[in-house]
Recover the amino acids of this structure.
């Protein structure tokens, strides 16, 4: 699902319209009543609240949303969510479930003149409820008609959380073309007068390398003069109408053109828009704010201007310039397609529309400049917005007085600030205006929260901020699409507690050092510490009133040491650790020969496991749990390690149990007790005779869901669990009745193999554990050793050290955490084993269209100024797309390295010289951003070292971002 907003949001170029079309809604806006409206005075607090006071809470269960577009929060906390394909979903905060509230028929495609059918951004693009919804139960839907070329705004009855079929009253229809993408609009909101605002996209084919003014015969779909700058057309506008009780609408006073003005539409409030998003109205000033998605050119040329996204403010009705102006009224060179000539741009004070496709006024209102504008490159005026792909979303203006009965309002620090987002860059900014409404400053809101394509953002009646994440897949369902509620805690915060012990047990007499390291109070209060050690045998407890006491145990037995911390307000928290006195823990050693950081697919690794126990004497090797598992990318190792602190640790299925613990399996299934779903022992019995079939088939059922095998209970789908990890779970379930502890000999070789369908970026978990037999009056103890061998493909974004280098989640084609560095910035990895490593392969790109200027990557040992191991040059170059015309190529080229890698040249077939040549078919799995990794040799180095990657460009400006660093591969051959 990609319009040019997505192209930026997916970091794609607008050059390839054949492969990417957009699906974005534009949100609506409102101008609130300024006179006669009572406002509650609010005191602004200049002290910024700590980020730890805000908690992002995921509301919707995984996999329940399919291309969510926008949402509305009701006063009772229920949330309606519109999906592009036509479904209306309802989230219920009491049951924490998502249900269907209705479905409408919509169009989701467009058909080119050549007959090529492509997924478009059209669909169910807008939804809102009436300001008096609790009384009249009216909802307003904006959608692409399923068969006719038009958008429809209609009113529906919404009773008992369901759309009432047959209740639709059509209010407004907007004719459209469906031969070329993009920009639909559909965002809606209200003002204090009950006026409804509707944003409408320009519905125009994109042109990146010239002005959007194609007046040639039969090319009106590429002429934005016929829409955005046409006073007699509703496309490329923000409309303001007043819905009437009978399902019609009237025109409120104060729109851009007085009612009855010839060659104008009275519904128009704002015109000259390209792709406006998520508008909102300041309830105190009545000013209108919205995000505006701009065009794609990377730089100024003879025929175009560098594209810019805008965050706009309107203090009344007006004209915002598209397609004649961009940013702060920068005029486009006027390209005459009929004569292949370029003329000076329009005058923003008196723009004239002479297009043959214009049906409105010739003289337009004066153009208004952008409030905030930023290009692909770094912005010198607004450096915090970053660089790269862009898709300005907009968002709400916060006033505490709008939430008088809120149980959890946002702090006064955000009073009057504009909370705006960018879908592609994934940030949320708090933008401050002065008393006149002029821009003053911006700062990132909650930078630790990384939403995946935030597509709508607004406050609920309860005072919480809600964010709708579209997810990482376009034109199809994303399991990571979700609704998030950001909650603010204004009061005293409970301390966080961490209790640990120097050992889990040992022979008596036993001395244990206890530690409270990691305990913290975010309010900065001094804490009261109390350790209380109790015995299962009923001995008198030991107490200590200090953070890190030492305790002596002279009697065998099981003890529980509980640390309780209390702040001055009485808020307390605690954590416990268990100690087994009288039993010496087993000793486990696990040795891996060769590299101890990485595994290499197809190359055997050797391991040796040894186990001993003071009380048990000789240990039967069969009683040592030895296992080697491949875990797909994203496995939570903390869950594995934490989960093995019990006597059940002596199992070869520790990884499978960690998967189950982290998922929702235990909600419906238990090993040998009945729940909603079948017991694991029953599943093992059922498929005992068909073990191989079940091991192959049941993982797919875990991922896709199913019903009917064990009655009418439905098993939900778990598509986020990889096929490999699902197979690991099934292997455990099918063998759950087996008594065998070990699956491996204590010495041997293992050849890593990437499971079919896996991306190869997972890890190898080598584990050895033994639970002893205990001792008189002492319970058994478990010891374990775990060695994690990571993939030789390493994401730079997982580095341990960052200096002048930010991370960015890249979600197109493949999800990766890339590093965006400035000159002299660096990242570092601690204790990387370089034994046997012969080469490094570095993958990075520096596309000028994304604002990158290129530079050099230095690989250094043990510090940013340490020994230089390799040097790699990343040359600034844009991608080339199949079917790109010569005039569309901007800085086409590639990346070179001082290691001699060849530049990426645009294929000759792609450089068509014919103007507007038919686009060529996009190859399957084509990735225009892929760059061959640049391989560099390094000298032999043994053992573990810190490894640094330092980024240089002496010609770069302080705010310039050099490149997108996406992958490091360690090569041992």
């Amino acid at each position: 699902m990609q319009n040019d907003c997505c192209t930026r949001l997916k970091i794609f170029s607008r050059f390839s319209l054949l492969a990417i079309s957009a699906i974005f809604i534009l949100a609506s806006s409102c101008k609130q009543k300024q006179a006669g409206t009572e406002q509650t005075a609010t005191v602004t607090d200049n002290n910024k609240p700590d980020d730890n006071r805000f908690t992002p809470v995921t509301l919707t269960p995984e996999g329940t949303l399919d291309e969510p577009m926008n949402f509305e929060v009701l006063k009772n906390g229920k949330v309606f969510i519109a999906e592009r394909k036509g479904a209306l979903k309802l989230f219920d905060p009491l049951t924490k479930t998502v249900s269907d509230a209705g479905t409408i028929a919509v169009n989701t495609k467009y058909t080119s003149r050549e007959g090529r059918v492509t997924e478009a951004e059209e669909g169910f693009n807008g939804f809102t409820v009436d300001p008096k919804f609790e009384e009249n139960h009216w909802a307003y839907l904006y959608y692409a008609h399923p068969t006719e070329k038009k958008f429809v705004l209609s009113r529906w009855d919404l009773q008992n959380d369901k759309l009432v079929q047959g209740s639709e009253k059509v209010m407004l229809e907007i004719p459209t073309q469906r031969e070329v993408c993009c920009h639909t609009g559909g965002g809606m909101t209200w003002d204090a007068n009950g006026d409804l605002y509707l944003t409408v996209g320009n519905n125009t084919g994109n042109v990146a390398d010239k002005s959007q003014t194609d007046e040639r015969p039969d090319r009106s779909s590429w002429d934005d003069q016929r829409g955005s700058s046409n006073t007699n057309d509703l496309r490329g506008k923000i409309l303001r109408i007043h819905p009437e009780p009978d399902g019609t609408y009237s025109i409120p006073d104060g729109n851009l053109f007085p009612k009855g003005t010839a060659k104008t539409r009275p519904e128009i409030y704002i015109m000259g828009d390209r792709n406006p998003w998520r508008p909102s109205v300041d309830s105190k000033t009545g000013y209108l704010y919205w995000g505006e998605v701009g065009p794609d050119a990377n730089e100024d040329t003879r025929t175009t201007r560098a594209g810019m996204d805008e965050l706009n403010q309107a203090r009344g009705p007006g004209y915002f310039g598209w397609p004649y102006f961009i940013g702060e009224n920068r005029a486009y060179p006027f390209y005459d397609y009929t004569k292949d000539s370029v003329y000076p741009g329009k005058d923003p004070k008196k723009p004239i529309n002479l297009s043959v496709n214009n049906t409105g006024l010739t003289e337009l209102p004066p153009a208004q400049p952008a409030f905030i504008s930023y290009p692909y490159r770094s912005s010198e005026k607004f450096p915090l917005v970053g660089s790269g792909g862009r898709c300005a979303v907009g968002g709400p203006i916060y006033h505490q007085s709008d939430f008088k009965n809120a149980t959890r309002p946002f702090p006064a620090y955000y009073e009057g600030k504009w909370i705006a987002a960018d879908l592609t860059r994934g940030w949320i900014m708090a933008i401050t205006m002065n008393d006149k409404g002029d821009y003053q400053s911006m700062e990132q809101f909650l930078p630790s929260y990384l939403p995946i394509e935030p597509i709508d953002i607004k406050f609920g009646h309860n005072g919480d901020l809600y964010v709708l994440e579209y997810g990482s897949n376009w034109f199809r369902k994303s399991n990571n699409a979700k609704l998030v509620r950001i909650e603010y805690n204004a009061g005293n915060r409970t301390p966080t507690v961490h209790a640990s012990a120097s050992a889990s047990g040992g022979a008596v007499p036993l001395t244990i050092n206890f530690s409270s390291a990691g305990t913290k109070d975010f309010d900065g209060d001094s804490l009261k510490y109390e350790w209380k050690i109790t015995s299962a045998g009923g001995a008198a407890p030991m107490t200590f009133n200090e953070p890190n006491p030492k305790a002596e145990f002279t009697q065998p037995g099981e003890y529980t040491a509980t640390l309780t911390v209390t702040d001055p307000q009485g808020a307390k928290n605690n954590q416990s650790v268990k100690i087994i006195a009288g039993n010496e823990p087993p000793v486990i050693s696990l040795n891996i020969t060769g590299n101890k950081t990485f595994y290499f697919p197809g190359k055997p690794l050797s391991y040796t496991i040894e186990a001993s126990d003071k009380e048990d004497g000789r240990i039967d090797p069969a009683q040592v749990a030895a296992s080697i598992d491949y875990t797909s990318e994203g496995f939570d190792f903390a869950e594995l390690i934490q989960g093995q602190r019990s006597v059940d640790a002596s199992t070869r299925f520790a990884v499978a149990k960690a998967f189950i613990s982290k998922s929702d399996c235990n909600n419906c299934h238990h090993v040998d007790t009945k729940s909603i779903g079948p017991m694991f022992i029953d599943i093992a019995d059922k498929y005992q005779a068909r073990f191989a079939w079940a091991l192959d088939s049941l993982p797919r059922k875990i991922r896709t869901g199913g019903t009917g095998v064990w009655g009418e209970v439905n098993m939900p789908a778990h598509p986020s669990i990889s096929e490999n990890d699902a197979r690991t779970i099934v292997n455990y379930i099918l063998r759950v009745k087996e008594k065998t502890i070990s699956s491996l000999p204590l010495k041997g070789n293992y050849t890593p193999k990437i499971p079919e369908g896996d991306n190869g970026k997972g890890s190898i978990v080598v584990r050895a554990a033994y639970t002893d037999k205990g001792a008189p009056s002492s319970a058994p103890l478990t010891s374990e050793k775990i060695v994690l061998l990571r993939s030789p493909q390493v994401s730079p974004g997982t580095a341990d050290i960052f200096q002048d280098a930010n991370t960015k989640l890249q979600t197109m084609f493949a999800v990766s955490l890339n590093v965006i560095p400035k000159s002299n910035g660096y990242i570092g990895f601690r204790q990387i084993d370089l034994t046997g490593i012969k080469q490094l392969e570095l993958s990075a790109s520096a596309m000028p269209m994304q604002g990158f200027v290129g530079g050099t990557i230095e690989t250094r040992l043990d510090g940013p100024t340490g020994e230089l191991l390799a040097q790699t040059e990343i040359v600034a170059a844009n991608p080339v797309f199949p079917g790109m015309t010569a005039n569309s190529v901007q800085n086409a080229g590639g990346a070179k390295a001082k290691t001699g890698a060849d530049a990426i040249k645009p294929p000759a077939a792609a450089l068509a010289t014919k103007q507007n040549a038919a686009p060529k078919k996009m190859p399957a799995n084509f990735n225009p951003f892929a760059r061959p990794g640049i391989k560099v040799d390094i000298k032999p180095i043994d053992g573990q070292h810190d490894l640094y990657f330092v980024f240089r460009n002496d010609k770069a400006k302080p705010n310039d971002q050099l490149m997108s660093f996406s992958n490091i591969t360690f090569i041992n051959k």
Observations:
- The two ends are 41 Å apart (CA to CA).
- The chain has four domains: 4-32+84-117+130-379+389-413, 500-581, 587-790, 793-971.
- The domain at 587-790 is CATH 1.10.760.10 (Cytochrome Bc1 Complex; Chain D, domain 2).
- The helical segments are 4-9, 133-136, 637-643, 654-662, 665-668, 680-686, 691-704, 723-734.
